[in-house]
Design a protein that fits this description.
This protein is α+β, with helices and mostly antiparallel strands. The chain is 32% helix and 22% strand. The chain is built from six helices and eleven strands. It has a five-stranded mixed sheet. β1 and β2 form a beta hairpin. α2 packs across α6. The longest helix has 21 residues. The N terminus is likely disordered.
Length: 232
């Protein structure tokens, strides 16, 4: 595989990727660009998706019945969870990234491997990886989960907005089917809003890296629970 090139936003910032930037599509055997290899670049470009929780946290903490953890405990659990997720999804194309200073974990499901173009159906070959993510969410229950959907620019804005919402919903529903409490999860679609990220491999045309879903895991402390219950 020739050197790949990432072009970012209107500034056209460039990062070079080697052969390690590829993962294999479980259905076609085709090699795709791995988001793991470009996670550091994406963090700055797509940082807005790593902001506050969808709809805030107070009502969601109460609705989800989260018990919370003491500060020291939640710090260790955070370190354990991000380390385990990183190790257990190695080689799948999933990128696991810390948000802020233990503010959250962003799990990026790889472009083009999780979904086919124009589809909100999860590729069957990716179920095992999602099962691993679900197991982690169950093992560490004191967190809220946001699921974000994205698309490329193929089709109309309205179609892509709907598709991104369905992709987020599909992943959340699958995680729920594996035992993750649905009350912990919220979903949001961003359509083609973040289509500034593209890849070019060799002489191939630029391909947007937006057929993906991102899962944000936000740990909830006992202080958060107390504040939610007191209405603060």
């Amino acid at each position: 595989m020739k050197t790949s090139k990432i072009i970012l936003s209107s500034t056209a910032a460039v990062a070079l990727l080697g052969t390690s930037a590829c993962v294999t599509d479980p259905n076609t055997g085709e090699q795709k660009v791995s988001r793991t290899a470009i996670g550091a670049v994406l963090g700055g470009v797509l940082g807005t998706a790593a902001g506050g929780l969808i709809g805030g946290d107070t009502a969601r903490i109460i609705g989800a019945g989260i018990g919370g953890s003491a500060g020291a405990v939640i710090g260790k659990q955070f370190d354990d969870q991000i380390k385990e997720l990183d190790e257990q999804t190695a080689g799948s194309g999933v990128d696991v990234e810390e948000i802020g200073d233990q503010d959250g974990i962003l799990v990026r499901l790889p472009d083009g491997v999780t979904f086919a173009s124009g589809s909100a159906d999860i590729n069957p070959g990716f179920y095992d990886t999602l099962n691993t993510v679900a197991d982690s969410l169950i093992q560490y229950p004191n967190s809220l989960i946001d699921v974000y959907g994205f698309t490329d620019t193929t089709g109309s804005n309205a179609l892509n907005q709907n598709l991104s919402e369905r992709r987020a919903q599909t992943v959340a529903d699958y995680l729920a089917s594996r035992g993750v409490a649905r009350s912990r999860m919220a979903t949001q679609g961003f359509g083609e809003s973040y289509d500034q990220l593209r890849v070019k491999t060799g002489d191939n045309v630029n391909e947007p890296l937006n057929r993906r879903v991102e899962i944000k895991i936000v740990p909830i402390s006992q202080d958060d629970v107390n504040a939610a219950r007191s209405g603060n």
